[in-house]
Structures are given as C-alpha cells and as structure tokens.
Design brief:
This protein has a two-stranded antiparallel ribbon. The chain is mostly helical and about 180 residues long. It has a domain of about 100 residues. Helices cover about 60% and strands about 0% of the residues.
Length: about 180
C-alpha cells in the first residue's frame, strides 16, 4: 500500500496551523476584570445548565412513565377515523388526566410526543383526509365538566422540579473581545 511520504509532517503542520489560527482568533489578551467576569459568567452558565439538564431528565422520566399510550391511541384513531370530530375533546380529557397527576409541563410533553408519533406513523394521505374531515376551527371544553376534572390537583413540583412551566434553555456566555 502506498502512503504519502510526508504524512506525519503534514499532520504536524496542520496542527500547528490550526493552533496558530485559533490563537489568532482569540484576539487580544483579556484584562483582569474581563477575565473575572468571563469566569463568573461561565460558572453561572454551568450551574444553570446543570439545573436545566436535571429538570429535563426528571420531566423526561415522568413522560416515559405517565402511561401515554391512551392519548397516542386516541391520536391514531382520530387520524384514521371517518368522523374525527369526537377525538379532540377525548384527547383534551386524557391530557387533563395526565396533568392532574403529573402537572401541565409533563402533560404538554406527553401530548406533543403522542401527536408527533401518531403523525409520523400515519401516511400523508391519512393526515390530509383527517384535515379535510375536521373543521378549520373547533373548540374543546378545557375548564368545564366535560372531563369530570377536579381542578388544582396537579403537583406544583416533583423531586424539586417545577411542573408548572419550562425554564428557558441556558445560553452560554459570549467571550468578551
């Protein structure tokens, strides 16, 4: 097998070139105040990122154990039904049942995943037919007795993680230049 005679040299040159370019891209040396601020911002970002990853793991675990097969089944039936009008209210009632047990954050994620999975398993033709059978706009009873809901029964937090809303994804700090 033929090899490039200067392979090792070529790699060394590319590493030196990349290293020197990355050093040149850094620009000027940071002042002590800028360096302290950069380190403080980076440390704060790491704390926020760790909390966000933990929250995401807890929510993802709850979504996985929430027995969402019933809401997925309702989406599957709605997609293939000749009369899909009844299913949006049933889906909302099922979402409320999950919300009562795990909170709105988990219920939203369960519903989003069930809808995505059902739509990806269906053919585009099935989706098109369902959309033709549904009106452009329709309402579902959210705050009424259609689902027999007991209000305020969902937890505020589970394992120290808020079940009410999702925190924003942490954004890494920008390097001062």
């Amino acid at each position: 097998m033929w090899r490039f005679p200067f392979a090792k040299t070529r790699w060394r040159i590319s590493f030196v070139l990349v290293g020197s370019l990355s050093w040149a891209a850094c620009g000027r040396e940071l002042s002590p105040a800028d360096r302290r601020q950069w380190h403080a911002d980076s440390a704060q970002y790491l704390v926020q990122l760790h909390a966000w990853e933990r929250d995401s793991t807890v929510v993802d675990s709850l979504v996985r154990i929430s027995r969402a097969d019933s809401i997925r089944t309702l989406y599957d039936k709605m997609i293939r039904s000749v009369a899909p009008m009844q299913y949006p209210q049933l889906i909302e009632c099922e979402r409320q049942r999950i919300e009562d047990r795990y909170g709105p954050r988990v219920a939203y994620e369960v519903q989003r995943r069930a809808q995505r999975d059902a739509a990806s398993a269906a053919t585009p033709r099935d989706i098109e037919l369902m959309n033709r059978r549904l009106p452009r706009g329709m309402g579902v009873e959210v705050m009424g007795d259609a689902c027999g809901r007991r209000y305020g029964t969902g937890p505020d937090s589970i394992a120290g993680v808020s079940m009410q809303d999702s925190p924003p994804t942490p954004v890494p700090p920008r390097h001062p230049r």
